[in-house]
Automatic annotation (TrEMBL):
This is 4-hydroxybenzoate 3-monooxygenase. InterPro entries: FAD-bd (IPR002938), FAD/NAD-bd_sf (IPR036188), HB_mOase (IPR012733), PheA/TfdB_FAD_monoxygenase (IPR050631). NCBIfam families: pbenz_hydroxyl, PRK08243.1. Residues 2-342 form the FAD-binding domain. Gene3D superfamilies: D-Amino Acid Oxidase, subunit A, domain 2, FAD/NAD(P)-binding domain. GO terms for biological process: benzoate catabolic process. It is an enzyme of class 1 (oxidoreductase). Keywords: Monooxygenase, Oxidoreductase. The keyword NAD does not apply.
Length: 390
């Protein structure tokens, strides 16, 4: 098989890249290890930056997002039992949209297939070859048959555990890594969210987050140990701890309901640079990971492929490879700012086992400053709603 751009991975990065290229008249094929049902049901991110929601609408994949997405004009930071609102609309004139990543994935798959796009699901043994030539190849097995995709360019959109980044020869890329000494226990519950906006809580027992997926479904997280045993967390214990950490203030109570899903998410900050080797371009989680406290992972993946799609459009439009050559630097400038924000939110809101009493007082002072100063609140707000693309 032959195509212009071979894409490994049908997460938000790979699917959106394929869609944007299609709009620009560029052919692509997506190779995905999992089944369609699996990727469409994988519960992950939930917050879209202001410009990301607009990009999806402008790209013609935002009908359901506009109908079902929950537009939020602020968040609440809770500490010492009191809530403090950060008003995005007032501070930045912008908003975010709460809309599940799996819904974005569903909308993109539907659009690609309706337009005749090719996505090979359940492809095993994917491998990339000849990356330093102008005819790189992807080999894989699907339906028991080995196949080969010859491309001009390969996009490695295969996430943190994919095969593209490890295919780059040693010494070419530098890895920056920080692993946090805690994780998030996340649940999805059939219970109406108790507030309209997200609550990020710093509590002596650890961080907690109230988020949502719809007016009927809550998404909630608790800071836990990286090796937390879920068997030690029966439903009653989860609710008790959520009530405790999110309590305070306005007399509202968390709504309980049956748990639909539960899991533990590790927390890390990771960057691979440069995000290119020859004709292989890394995008999304294959090149970087952020801790979820800033709600940035999916948004960063969208930012990468927006830049890559534009660079490929210039390349195929006869305007040369300058934009492709600049791809990695263009993305990394913004990625490091988003890394900084995600790290900053994480250190401000979580409990660290080795924190001294000084560290704890300083953390509360930081929250007090961020919620009490318009200048400080604005820096949080402008990062949360999304920095400009370039
Ligand atoms: P993905 O979504 O991991 O997609 C990669 C795809 O590649 C496939 N793949 C392969 N295919 C073929 N051959 C192979 N050898 C392959 N190896 C892997 C995989 O099956 C998969 O389909 O990466 P992508 O597209 O870069 O998207 C990144 C986002 O998924 C990720 O950054 C976010 O989910 C992170 N994240 C959040 N991001 C936000 O923007 N806002 C949030 O509120 C937010 N909350 C979260 C999050 C991630 C979480 N978890 C579980 C990691 C909350 C959580 C709990
Ligand atoms: C989510 O709704 O899953 C979510 C929201 C905000 C975050 C992380 C995850 O910071």
């Amino acid at each position: 098989m032959r195509t212009q751009v071979g894409i490994v991975g049908a997460g938000p990065a790979g699917l959106l890249l394929s869609h944007l290229l299609h709009l620009a008249g560029i052919e692509s094929v997506v190779i995905e290890a999992r089944s369609r049902a699996y990727v469409e049901e994988r519960i992950r991110a939930g917050v879209l930056e202001d410009w990301v929601a607009r990009l999806l609408v402008d790209a013609g994949v935002g009908d359901r997002l506009r109908r079902e997405g929950l537009v939020h004009h602020g968040i609440e930071l809770k500490f010492e039992g009191r809530g403090h609102r950060i008003d995005f609309a007032d501070l930045t004139g912008k908003s975010v949209t709460v809309y599940g990543q799996h819904e974005v994935v569903r909308d993109l798959i539907k659009a690609r297939l309706a337009a005749g796009g090719r996505i090979v699901f359940e492809a095993s043994d994917a491998a990339v070859h000849d990356l330093d030539t102008d005819r790189p190849r992807i080999t894989y097995t699907a339906g028991g048959v080995s196949d080969e995709l010859v491309c001009d360019v390969i996009a490695g959109c295969d996430g943190f555990h994919g095969i593209c980044r490890p295919a780059i020869p040693g010494g070419v890329i530098r890895l920056y890594d920080r692993v946090y000494p805690f994780a998030w226990l996340g649940i999805l519950a059939k219970a109406p969210p108790a507030t309209e906006e997200l609550i990020y809580a710093n509590h002596p027992n650890g961080f907690a987050l109230l988020s949502m997926r719809s007016p009927e479904v809550s998404r909630l997280y608790l800071q836990c140990a990286p090796d937390e045993d879920l068997a030690l967390w029966p439903d009653e214990r989860i609710w008790e701890e959520l009530h405790r950490r999110l309590a305070g203030g306005e007399g509202w109570r968390l709504n309980e309901g049956p748990l639909i899903q539960r899991g533990v998410t590790a927390m890390r900050s990771f960057v691979a640079e440069p995000m290119r080797y020859g004709r292989l371009f890394l995008a999304g989680d294959s090149a970087h990971i952020v801790p979820p406290t800033g709600a940035k992972g999916m948004n960063l993946a969208v930012a990468d492929v927006a830049v890559l799609a534009r660079a490929l459009e210039a390349f195929y439009g006869g305007r040369g490879g300058d934009a492709l050559d600049a791809y990695s630097d263009t993305c990394l400038r913004r990625i490091w700012k988003v890394q900084r924000f995600s790290w900053w939110m994480t250190q401000m809101l979580h409990r660290f086992d080795d924190a001294s009493p000084f560290d704890e007082r300083r953390q509360i002072a930081e929250l007090d400053y961020v919620t009490g100063s318009r200048a400080a609140a604005t820096t949080l707000a402008e990062n949360y709603v999304g920095l400009p693309l370039e």
